[in-house]
Amino acid sequence: MAVKTAESRLEERWRDILSVHARTMCEIDRVLHPHGLGASDFEVLDILASEAPGQGDQCRVQNLAGRVHLSQSALSRLIGRLEKDGLVERSVCAEDRRGVYVALTGKGRDLHTEVLPLQREVLARLLGGRAAAHGSS
Amino acid sequence: MAVKTAESRLEERWRDILSVHARTMCEIDRVLHPHGLGASDFEVLDILASEAPGQGDQCRVQNLAGRVHLSQSALSRLIGRLEKDGLVERSVCAEDRRGVYVALTGKGRDLHTEVLPLQREVLARLLGGRAAAHGSS
DNA sequence: CCGCATTCATTGCACAGTCAACCAATGGCT
DNA sequence: AGCCATTGGTTGACTGTGCAATGAATGCGG
């Protein structure tokens, strides 16, 4: 029966992850949406903002791809949208001319500063006390 | 500094959830794909299979909607696909004629039995020992 | 009994994401 | 130097999902 319990525990844990992930993701999306952002958009903005506090916060696309759980194509389109909204700027990398640097604009930085507390609040509210709710609901 | 730590811990925990979720989800998808299923498909099949071991494993759509983290529309389409593949069957609920019962077919049950160990194996492999991998890689 | 608000499920539309194909640039090899 | 395999990023076609609107059935209130 110990084996059975372990198996059940695993499944239970998976369901829990699924649940927490869905709830939190959805809530972040909901909070960020009025500002024209989705959860993935914020994640990229956040990485860009924290990666290089200075003005040279240039980051190669492949570097980003490693940090967010998105395919290169999704990331490319996402950056395209962000660029269209004037939040980031693309520039060719001089060293590797097939590489592309992505940098936050002032507007992008402002928006990030504005929405960061909102995201943090959601995290605190939904992930706050408990490490892994394993019982009901 | 305690405050700062708590905030960092929250964010770290969130990133961890994101990471584990993405990895596991992706792996389940990859393992199930050869059998023509996605992770969501399996989840519905799994609920249907475990919900009523007898032959009357009928389950209303709204009942399913509460257990999987999908919108009603997504669920409806998903059931549509499953039905098209002959894995489940829809039947109108006699009591509430606006409700729909969903039931596993023999084929659906067989497939579930076939792929269940695969999903379990992934869970064991990726969620296996550690509650929350917090270090490298 | 008839209308009206509510609930269950499905469908139209838009959007984000993946996979595969593609172009551009680089680096090694002959 | 010229060629070929490899890497970096973008684009096309397709799939899956959510929101909002719709159709159908129920139940309540006049």
From TrEMBL, chains A, B:
Q: What is the lineage of its organism?
A: Bacteria, Bacillati, Actinomycetota, Actinomycetes, Kitasatosporales
What name does UniProt use for this protein?
Answer: MarR family transcriptional regulator
Q: Which InterPro entries match?
A: HTH_MarR-typ, MarR/SlyA-like, Tscrpt_reg_MarR-type_CS, WH-like_DNA-bd_sf, WH_DNA-bd_sf
Q: Which Gene3D superfamilies match?
A: Winged helix-like DNA-binding domain superfamily/Winged helix DNA-binding domain (1.10.10.10)
- Keywords on record: DNA-binding, Transcription, Transcription regulation
Per UniProt, residues of the HTH marR-type domain are: 1-137
- Identify the Pfam families for this entry: MarR (PF01047)
